[in-house]
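In response to reviewer comment 3 from the previous cycle, which asked for concrete evidence that the modeling workflow produces usable outputs, we include below a single protein chain processed end to end. The sequence was submitted unchanged, and the resulting structure tokens are shown without manual editing.
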Amino acid sequence: MLPIVIDTNIFKHLKNPPGGKGDTHIHQLLASLATSHTLQVDKYGKILGEYEVILSAMIDNPDNQDEFEIYLLRYWLKIKEHRVLEKPIPHNLRDSIRKIIIEVSETIDCCFVETAALSDCDLITNDELHIYNRAKDLKKSLRKLGYKKTEILNSLDARDKFCSNVES
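The workflow returned the following structure tokens.
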């Protein structure tokens, strides 16, 4: 299984997709990735902690029990094995990312990028405010430090990359 870092907002958008009701591209993406990828998380538990805080109410809500989105969430977050990144985060990587994601309160967003870079894998995010709108600068910075394999994709770009024979 290949590692993949998935921002919390991707899972959150399963129930409220950015394209509106009836947009199933995130369903397609997560279903396709399920057979080839595993979630890459940090050793300090920041990523899993954010998943728990943001998504547990949605997963545990009895009104949602029969919805396909909840099955996908449970599979990815509770059933499917996660890969833990054991490498320490180098100071130059952390400093480089924090020069681009400058908001002090956005340490989890930095963690998503750091984890993807150190794992040589892609980051899928719909965070237009802190990550995706800065993807070009982040990727340039990562490449300067030697992290050349990491791409920062939104859910539509990721669906196009990872899902074959997808109708738009």
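The chain has a mean pLDDT of 90. We consider this sufficient to address the reviewer's concern, and the full set will be provided in the supplementary archive.
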